[in-house]
């Protein structure tokens, strides 16, 4: 093998090692499970929840009915996301997982948002769901999901879901690979933050007037 090929091989291996290191999600658990102690008020602040005594663990701590009932979609966007997380499913603690039930009213929207700490896979169970995400080069990837179809939203990228049907609600279940994926709604982050982003910044960023900034803030309850 020539010196040049060896050098490029080392470069490729180094690049791979760096990429794999970055692909990690939540830290790995150090034990089989760490049932979240949701009762005692935290006296120390840690990355995740403290575990209860393993001798007190019951099967029910790995189960939840949190996703059994639809959330109310009577709100400004017509959607409701119900989570199964360490609060109602303490067995999820340190597993790097969150689940969500997404109910979307007829013509309802899960408005553009991102999850800074998780990729998401969504399966459509009822109705039609039009989904899309925009990558960092500005390309939109969009699909219409029918019952049984799944779609992946890559970690951190802005995505949306909407139900194009006029009559029937839609239902999806999502899995996210973090126990604390975080969610940032693009429009609210820009126009309803506390304190407010200076008007000049929004005028420049969106090429709009001060009146338009005020109107959008009012519409979003900002
Ligand atoms: C989601 O649904 C629950 C249960 O019906 C309700 O308490 C909650 O207010 C709803 N959230 C929104 C944003 O509508």
UniProtKB/TrEMBL annotation:
Q: Does the keyword Flavoprotein apply?
A: no
Keywords annotated in UniProt: Apoplast, Disulfide bond, Glycoprotein, Manganese, Metal-binding, Secreted, Signal
Q: Binding positions for oxalate?
A: 115, 120
List the record's Gene Ontology CC terms alphabetically.
apoplast; plasmodesma
Cited PROSITE patterns: GERMIN
Q: Which residues are Mn(2+)-binding?
A: 113, 115, 120, 159
Q: Write the protein's name.
A: Germin-like protein
What species is this protein from? Punica granatum (Pomegranate)
> Its gene?
LOC116199924
């Amino acid at each position: 093998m020539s010196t040049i090929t060896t050098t490029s091989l080392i470069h490729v291996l180094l690049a791979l090692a760096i990429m794999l290191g970055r692909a990690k999600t939540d830290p790995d658990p150090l034990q089989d499970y760490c049932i979240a102690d949701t009762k005692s008020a935290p006296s120390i602040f840690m990355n995740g929840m403290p575990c209860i005594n393993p001798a007190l663990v019951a099967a029910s701590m790995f189960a939840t009915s949190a996703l059994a009932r639809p959330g109310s979609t009577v709100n400004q966007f017509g959607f409701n996301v119900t989570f199964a997380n360490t609060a109602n499913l303490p067995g999820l603690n340190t597993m790097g997982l969150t689940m969500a039930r997404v109910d979307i009213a007829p013509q309802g929207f899960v408005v553009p948002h991102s999850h800074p700490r998780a990729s998401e896979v969504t399966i459509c169970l009822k109705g039609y769901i039009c989904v899309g995400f925009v990558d960092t080069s500005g390309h939109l990837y969009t699909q219409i999901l029918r019952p049984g179809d799944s779609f992946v939203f890559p970690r951190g990228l802005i995505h949306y879901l909407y139900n194009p049907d006029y009559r029937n609600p839609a239902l999806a279940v999502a899995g996210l690979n973090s126990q604390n994926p975080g969610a940032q709604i693009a429009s609210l982050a820009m126009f309803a933050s506390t304190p407010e982003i200076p008007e000049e910044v929004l005028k420049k960023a969106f090429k709009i007037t001060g009146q338009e900034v005020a109107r959008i803030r009012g519409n979003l309850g900002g």
